[in-house]
């Protein structure tokens, strides 16, 4: 999707309805990142695993709500994530998937219909797009968005609370905020508990075990200009690291940046559609 | 605990530290309701069930976060609810428990050590005490608290989103709020997503299937004075009704009003203690 055609399609989809965006993804004609698409709707990180591990993973999310804000869970074996969309089919409605076998990345695909299992449980987790929009709307431009790069992410020394085989350090993302607006940025993001909530740390990166803030472990480096403070938020890569540590025989996630776009409004109080018996059950 | 001795103990414990309150409950010397005790700390509803039903129940809570705001889940078979307290032993630290067998109340006890099972999973759910305190602090006195009665609760016609055997109508609690302050009361409670959040309805009770607002299905009737609007919040009795519908062979809940008092500050962003390896694991 880096070619001319892909970029044109992206620009078209930015102006398109949620239905059109989902169709383009479902049919496989759009396979790239989802930033800026389906504006106004909640996007979600994805983890799919056999039911045997689902209770432990759900406990891991409940115990670590800032890096792992759970927004939806499927019935076992049901690819319809009916609490988050009227017609979401999780086997096709994400632009790209990463497949992990025994904790190692085994490949990326754009459809998982052929490897779907009857014992799979789907988890959707909130992502940072939501609070980033709120910060920018409050007049706090974010460098990585302005410069079209990926937010810098770091392995911190903050332990997550383990559950079963899921454990590890918290991954955090960094955004530099003007000194005088740190408290405001914290308050704005705290209002989005399903999008990582308030930052876990700000100021000296060494305070959470980050040796060099210019050398991220994931994503692209971003400057901390004079008069700015590095602020660190819990990051959705944390569950990915915990999943690798757990070495499940199989686990499927979204490819980073290639999220599930849901039918849930970004400012909804809860990420659940009201029941609609004929569609859902 | 209705006798003179019980009342004196309650008055003493109202002034006592969290540690002293928990010891009195653990030793069985205090067996009554927990309203007003351990002030400043989060109190929680309780549901304990075999692991075989835990994933479905957890999905039910995730899909119905307003009536069932999940605040803690134990490891299977571990009676220490270590994410919500440094030394909580769930077998003894609740003043009174209800035991359900095949969906029917089979008795109430003050300790469940003798019926604890190695496959039990403990669920703690947020309760209305938190947002009620916030309303009263904003100068909105609540009739049932002022008059020392139980809040009126009603079976509404709002369907919850089912998960496995758990399903049923949402139970709601009613508080009458002065007309001019309805929006304010909604906004205040919305800030407490782990305590039922914003109301699900206000105004005409018939709008959610309540025929007579003076005849609650649970709790005590409360007036809706001239110039007041009945406001309805999702209620923690909802999961109890869903549990009865599921007819589990065994399930244990707190006795209504007799809650778990946790170590979590009432205004904490997330209901999880930071890991303390030696104590927790």
Automatic annotation (TrEMBL), chains A, B:
Which InterPro entries does this entry report, sorted A to Z?
D-Glu_cyclase (IPR009906), Putative_hydro-lyase (IPR038021), UPF0317 (IPR016938)
Keywords (A to Z) from UniProt: Lyase
Lyase keyword on record: yes
Question: Known EC number(s)?
Answer: 4.2.1.-
UniProt-listed HAMAP family: Hydro_lyase
Membership in a protein family: Belongs to the D-glutamate cyclase family.
- State the name under which the record lists this protein: Putative hydro-lyase GQ651_06965
Entry keyword annotation includes Lyase = yes
Q: Name one GO molecular function term.
A: D-glutamate cyclase activity
Classification via Gene3D superfamilies:
PSTPO5379-like, PSTPO5379-like domain
Highest taxon of the lineage = Bacteria
Q: Name one GO biological process term.
A: glutamate metabolic process
Q: Which organism is this protein's natural source?
A: Kangsaoukella pontilimi
